[in-house]
Automatic annotation (TrEMBL), chains A, B:
Organism: Nibrella viscosa
Site (Important for catalysis): Y142, K189
Pathway named in the protein's UniProt entry: Amino-acid biosynthesis; L-leucine biosynthesis; L-leucine from 3-methyl-2-oxobutanoate: step 3/4
Enzymatic reactions: (2R,3S)-3-isopropylmalate + NAD(+) = 4-methyl-2-oxopentanoate + CO2 + NADH
Protein family according to the UniProt entry: Belongs to the isocitrate and isopropylmalate dehydrogenases family. LeuB type 1 subfamily.
EC number(s) recorded for this UniProt protein: 1.1.1.85
Class in the EC hierarchy, top level: oxidoreductase
SUPFAM superfamilies in alphabetical order: Isocitrate/Isopropylmalate dehydrogenase-like
Keywords, sorted A to Z: Amino-acid biosynthesis, Branched-chain amino acid biosynthesis, Cytoplasm, Leucine biosynthesis, Magnesium, Manganese, Metal-binding, NAD, Oxidoreductase
Cofactor needs: Mn(2+); Mg(2+)
Protein name in the entry: 3-isopropylmalate dehydrogenase
One Pfam family of this chain: Iso_dh
Location in or out of the cell: Cytoplasm
Binding site for Mg(2+): D221, D245, D249
Length: 356, 356
């Protein structure tokens, strides 16, 4: 299989971790007889520094022409202290999502046995948990009309969804469930919200096309509770932009470490694959960043954009093997980790390649 | 101190648990030299059966004339299967909140050492956790304009807050923090929502009046994560109606059991004190309901409505003592609980009274 991948490393540790992600993709290509070609493009702070624009037109053009995007991170501390800055690194990420029509954010929460202890949740509640979140990205209260009235003393936002927005992500969620444990949990607040009642209606309609998938509907407050009480009850979870924002962050804590979590943003064309950790400027350039989330993002790319299930599994298994061999980056090491097993970014990459 | 209390037991186990709550209040009155007088009033399904109205005018009148309300539960399974029913038990609770202007829901999450094991979260993360949530009750997306447009294919809800609504609950939260560990965490989504930016502005203004209180602002997604990662970092948490709905349910799982959680709904007059567990018709009339949440609701009443701190503490200590003595109701018993320590509602009440 021939595929063209754009690497958009972005800011901070983005450079270091995508370098390892790319090495793993190359090894997979070699081992399974594929041909992956690469291009690079700028985004975020590095793009602002080079061009004045967090999302240069060239980056959009290269992305549209590619089969998939391996994404690093955006962000720079200098903007955090200046909320008034009009040009910001994060605009690069929002802009590329919009330019590519990426309406679904996929976040798998799969726990590696070796890291079960890292969470504040008891391992016996976590063992075997394997959840795939679908968070809607283009609608909801993030994009509805907002403003002030009554001379500024009242502020409002509009939570809004249209049928087609719900339908297209529901279809993606049910399709994914068919390849997994065939369960979909749709999360809304339909006992109160009209937008949630529409959400639930459309999900129920889509569900009829997938009679083999078991569907349940949970209210967001109950879901936030059940995610801690019994994470293993969930397979695919599909929800709106706001509730998805909340639940996926909560779920990242179930996994114990942000350093291991990958995500995919997909729509009707090129998909974008990125770790959920940010640019982490405090450790940038020190060679200690955990590359496993970028590697697992590459595995998601193989699976979702290229349909290469076996190759994706090989990557996940390699991650499992290096963890079983006791290797850790600093962020996932604990007091039981021997000093010689604590690896830097590149050394962890080499252990991974040795398992592939 | 002379106080007049209306007991609104309501539906299901409400009758059984408020009976114990009242016994405890009586013992406190006796022991500390107060005079508590009582009245009773109907609400919910029992009110519908007796009068056709889930909130009879007499109930409102008695409540307004009282110093505090000891509330049980509302709800009946017969309505769950009939979503079209126009007259519903829950209307009683919403109606009385409105009639009394109860705009703040207080939910303390305090873990008894003996029950630390009941949560899915590791006890070492929970020990000492003591959080008081303030959830706004009368505004937000629950009460904004909602509807459909584009021939029903688009649905919207309006998230809305006015300054006075934020200010009055912020003041309550800061006042409470002054009597506790002097920390307030305000939760919003000010990086996206205009209503959250107003929320944050007003909380920052109120904060200036309480220079001794340490304030932090968290986004709802981060808060949902931190609540699991490090529950002990929180003292008072104040947030809007929707985010409060989500966080308090999530926090109830931290506590391991709904059967132990009390809440207070307060405004500018009579406060209402209720367990967060519902009417629990599956165990109604069996004498096995856990009365401790009603007893802890009575303790909240003593503290918040009557300012009787020492008396409130005596009740909480009595609960602690019966738990330390090994007594459990069925819902909080586990495989290590000897059969003779598993008590019914009334027997648990007697053990409590023996500790007061
Ligand atoms: Mg988030
Ligand atoms: Mg709730």
């Amino acid at each position: 299989m021939k595929k063209h991948i754009v690497v958009i490393a972005g800011d901070g540790i983005g450079q270091e971790v995508t370098a390892v992600g790319k090495q793993v993709l190359n090894r997979i290509a070699e081992k399974f007889g594929h041909e992956f070609t690469y291009d690079e493009a700028l985004i975020g702070h590095v793009a602002i520094e080079a061009t004045g624009n967090p999302l240069p037109a060239e980056t959009i053009a290269k992305s549209k022409a590619s089969d998939a995007i391996l994404f690093g991170a955006v962000g720079h501390p200098k903007y955090d202290n200046d909320p008034s800055a009009k040009v910001r690194p994060e605009q690069g990420l929002l802009g590329i999502r919009k330019a590519l029509g990426l309406y679904a954010n996929l976040r798998p929460i799969k726990l590696f046995d070796e890291l079960l202890q890292a969470s504040s949740i008891k391992p016996e509640f976590l063992k075997g948990a394997d959840i795939l979140f679908f968070r809607e990205l283009t609608g909801d209260v993030y994009f509805g009309e907002r403003g002030r009235k009554d001379e500024g003393s009242t502020a409002y936002d509009t939570m809004i969804y249209s049928r087609y927005e719900v339908e297209r992500i529901a279809v993606k969620a049910f399709e994914a469930a068919m390849t997994r444990r065939k369960k979909v949990c749709s999360v809304d607040k339909a006992n109160v919200l009209e937008s949630s009642r529409l959400w639930r209606e459309v999900v129920q309609e889509v569900a009829k096309r997938y009679p083999d998938v078991e569907v349940e509907h949970q209210f967001i407050d109950a879901a936030a509770m059940l995610l801690i009480k019994d994470p293993r009850r969930f397979d695919v979870v599909v929800t709106g932009n706001l509730f998805g924002d909340i639940l996926t962050d909560e779920a990242s804590q179930i996994a114990g470490s942000m350093g291991m979590l990958a995500s995919a943003s997909v729509g009707d064309s090129t998909g974008l694959y990125e770790p959920i950790h940010g640019s982490a400027h405090d450790i940038t350039g020190k060679g200690v960043a955990n590359p496993l989330a970028s590697v697992l993002s590459a595995a998601l790319m193989l699976d979702i954009s290229f349909g290469l299930k076996e190759e994706a599994e090989a990557v996940v298994n390699a991650v499992d093997q290096v963890l079983k061999a006791g290797y850790r980056t600093r962020d996932i090491a604990d007091s039981n980790t021997p000093a010689d097993k604590v690896l830097g970014t590149q050394a962890m990459g080499e252990q991974l390649l040795a398992c592939l």
